[in-house]
């Protein structure tokens, strides 16, 4: 039994590890110098290509970021322009709506609605935007719509025309309030049927 190793730590420590395989490769490459030069040139070429590709990739990434930034800026500008245009359209629509409401509230109360709108100032508007018609007509009495008066004779003679009744026209109806139309409905209907 003396021939078998005892397995002590001291025996393991004295053993030498096997030699690495690398020196064999170096010796083999030293023996054939031509393939090494060829491999080195190929390796250098590949490194240059890799470095050039990395530089190109970096440049393309920077260009991509620049294009993304330009696109975002352009989209923001376009959105802002559209928003400004829509706000302008909204304000124009609101102004037109205000004018139409004023026209509707003045119709039948004044002779010329367009002239009244031109003369209507903020002092003649209530807080809610409706016109103060009475105050306006006190300031501009010549615009007040007269009640249904009998027209004068064609020659300016001052007498009433026809048999004493008023002949209503479409223009008269346009200027009349619904209450005036209702009050004179029989005569209006008679004139429209004849």
From TrEMBL:
InterPro entries, sorted: SCAF (IPR009636)
Region entry Disordered, spans: 1-52, 147-194
Domain of life: Bacteria
Pfam families: Phage_scaffold
Compositionally biased tracts (Low complexity): 11-26
Bias (Basic and acidic residues) ranges: 35-52
Record field: compositional bias (Gly residues): 154-165
Biased composition (Polar residues): 1-10
Identification of the protein by name: Scaffolding protein
């Amino acid at each position: 039994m003396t021939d078998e190793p005892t397995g002590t730590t001291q025996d393991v420590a004295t053993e030498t590890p096997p030699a690495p395989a690398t020196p064999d490769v170096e010796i083999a490459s030293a023996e054939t110098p031509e393939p090494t030069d060829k491999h080195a040139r190929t390796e250098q070429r590949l490194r240059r290509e890799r470095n050039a590709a990395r530089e190109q990739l970096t440049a393309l990434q920077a260009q991509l970021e620049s294009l993304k930034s330009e696109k975002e800026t352009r989209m923001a500008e376009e959105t802002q322009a559209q928003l400004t245009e829509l706000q302008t359209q909204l304000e124009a629509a609101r102004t037109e709506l205000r004018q139409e409401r004023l026209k509707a509230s003045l119709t039948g109360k004044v002779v010329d609605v367009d002239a009244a709108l031109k003369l209507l100032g903020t002092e003649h508007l209530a807080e809610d935007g409706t016109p103060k018609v009475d105050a306006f007509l006190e300031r501009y009495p010549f615009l007040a719509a007269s009640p249904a008066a009998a027209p004068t004779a064609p020659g300016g003679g001052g007498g009433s025309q026809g048999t004493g009744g008023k002949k209503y026209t479409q223009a008269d109806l346009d200027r009349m309030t619904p209450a005036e139309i209702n009050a004179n409905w029989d005569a209006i209907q008679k004139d429209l049927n004849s």
